[in-house]
Amino acid sequence: MTCAAIIVAAGSGSRARRASDTVAKQYLEIGGKAVLLRTLEQFLANEKIDRIQVVIGSQDNDLYNEAIAPTLTGQLAEQAKAKLLPPVHGGDTRQISVLNGLKAIKTENPKHVLIHDAARPFITDAILARCFESLKEHKACLVATPVTDTIKKVDAKGAILETIDRTTLWSAQTPQAFDYAFILNAHEKAFNQTLHAFTDDASVAEWVGEPVHIVEGSPSNRKLTSQEDLTMAETMITPTASRPLTDIRVGTGYDVHAFDEGDAVIIGGVSIPHTHKLKGHSDADVGLHAITDAILGAIADGDIGTHFPPSDPQWKGAASDLFLKDAVRRVKERGGKLSNIDMTIICEAPKIGPHRPDMRTAIAQLCQISIDRISVKATTSERLGFTGRKEGIAALATATVRLPEQED
Ligand SMILES: Nc1ccn([C@@H]2O[C@H](COP(=O)(O)OP(=O)(O)OP(=O)(O)O)[C@@H](O)[C@H]2O)c(=O)n1
Ligand SMILES: C[C@](O)(CO)[C@H](O)COP(=O)(O)O
Predict the structure, then answer these.
(1) Same domain, 164 and 281
(2) HAMAP family, per this entry (predicted)?
(3) 200 to each of 207, 228, 254, 323, how far by Cα in Å?
(4) How many domains does the chain have?
(5) What lines the ligand 1 site, CB under 6 Å?
(6) Do 251 and 147 belong together in one domain?
(7) Which of 56, 99, 117 to mutate to test ligand 1, by most ligand atoms within 8 A of the CB atom?
(8) Which of 39, 65, 202, 238 sits at 20 to 30 Å (Cα–Cα) from 272?
(9) Is residue 408 part of a domain?
(10) Do 213 and 197 share a structural domain?
(11) Which of 205, 237, 269 is the last residue of a domain?
């Protein structure tokens, strides 16, 4: 194992927090995807990084699992299986969180480590490549950009004391890249001397007397620190945000599941007592599967099997909520909105009518749209065909999606 990455995500994000926010900034979505997930994906996709250790808040296990596990699909899920270590808890300062991450990967014994803020989701492969190049010659490397504003030193009353020569000033970013044994030792030494407030890892290296080499960063590798940064990030990711949602798309979905021995079927997110269950690799929710495919159809993004292959054992018995939420996320990622869903269940039994309100509620919640945009219908097939013979249940769905206007 040659290179590990530590992503620190244990901060409280107090400067970016709006009154309506119930979670720290790393769990907020920008462009339909959690900030932490965006950051993590960059590291998962980089082939030179062998292991990733995320450091999270001690209360954030559920938040982390909800933000990360269900959203990593396809190739990224494969990379996560190979690289992503279970998260560890951080501490009261960034420095302590980094140290916890460094200690957690001791058994991995990497040659190099890249330490990165979860709050910097715009990290690019080009910056990572420059870090790897610099690590060939240096034990300690810092991604940074030259200061471009004129810098003033100001007193407590707001009066300028002096203008500082900016020609030698750089703004520190992350990743900060090190020889692993060196930075672990330096961090442990600082901690043991009760120095806990270094604001970055290069400062820890400087403190033990190691020269730190500058690696060119980028202004877009900004840290999301304030509310304005979050707004700016949204427009960077979704440049279409300001465009009208006039590109109307329609998709259809169809699914069938056969009956098997059991005592309840799950349809439209609702469990209905019945003489049989539905057979399937997942929970066999024929209704949510048809809706998921209808949404994916509307945005021309494959079908459920593309993103959640039935051959992959991790989806065995999976709640179909996961599939639908992922399709809804893909709409948001494109800056779009789901307009309505119309679903028809085809079966002789069980009776769907009594469960219609619960299904509409469940689907509306999963799709994050109001219940008056969700229609659930049912019909028999007049005892004809496989549904008529009570061999299984079929579902049809239509979804309408509004996407930002774009030039063809
Ligand atoms: N005790 C801490 C503090 C910060 N961080 C992480 O360090 C990175 C940089 O910190 P910053 O952006 O300043 O985040 P917060 O400390 O969360 O923000 P604030 O100071 O506004 O509360 C973030 O990814 C943050 O989650 C951490 O892991 N543990
Ligand atoms: C590490 C860092 O991102 C470098 O700019 C920064 O110092 C951490 O953020 P904080 O605002 O100092 O906590």
Answers:
(1) no
(2) IspD, IspDF, IspF
(3) 11, 23, 53, 39
(4) 2
(5) 8-16, 24, 26, 55, 90-94, 97, 117-119, 223, 225
(6) no
(7) 117
(8) 65
(9) no
(10) yes
(11) 237
**Domain boundary residue, one of 237, 258, 282:** 237
Q: Tell me the CATH number at 232.
A: 3.90.550.10
| Whether 180 and 283 share a structural domain | no
Mutate to test the pocket of ligand 2, among 223, 224, 226 (most ligand atoms within 8 A of CB): 223
User: Does 218 lie in the same domain as 232?
Assistant: yes
Q: Are residues 26 and 72 in the same domain?
A: yes
d(CA 176, CA 255): 49
Contact 393, 278 (CB under 8 A): yes
Range of the domain at 385: 243-403
Q: Are residues 275 and 221 in the same domain?
A: no
In this structure, the answer to whether residues 374 and 283 fall within a common structural domain is yes
CB atoms within 10 A of CB 218: 15
CA of 201, closest atom in ligand 2:
1
Distance 43 CA to ligand 1 centre (A): 19
Residue 231 lies in a domain: yes
For residues 160 and 151, give the distance between their C-alpha atoms in angstroms, rounded to a whole number.
10
- 255 known member of a binding site: yes
DSSP structure string for 351-364: --GGGHHHHHHHHH
Angle, in degrees to the nearest 10, between helices 286-298 and 356-367 = 40
User: Per residue of the chain (408 residues), what is the pLDDT tens digit?
Assistant: 699 999 999 999 999 998 888 899 999 999 888 999 999 999 999 999 999 999 999 999 999 998 887 677 777 888 898 999 999 999 999 999 999 999 999 999 999 999 999 999 999 999 999 999 999 999 999 999 999 999 999 999 999 999 999 999 999 999 999 999 999 999 999 999 988 889 999 999 999 999 999 999 999 999 999 999 999 998 887 766 567 889 999 999 999 999 999 999 999 999 999 999 999 988 999 999 999 999 999 999 999 999 998 888 888 888 999 999 999 999 988 889 999 999 999 999 999 999 999 999 999 999 999 999 999 999 999 999 999 999 999 999 999 999 988 755
The dihedrals phi and psi of 256, each to the nearest 5 degrees, come to -140, 140
Ligand nearest to the CA of 10: 1
Q: Peptide bond preceding 350: is omega within 30 degrees of 0, i.e. cis?
A: yes
Instruction: State if residue 98 touches ligand 2 by the CB under 6 angstroms criterion.
Output: no
C-alpha 116 – ligand 2 centre gap (Å): 10
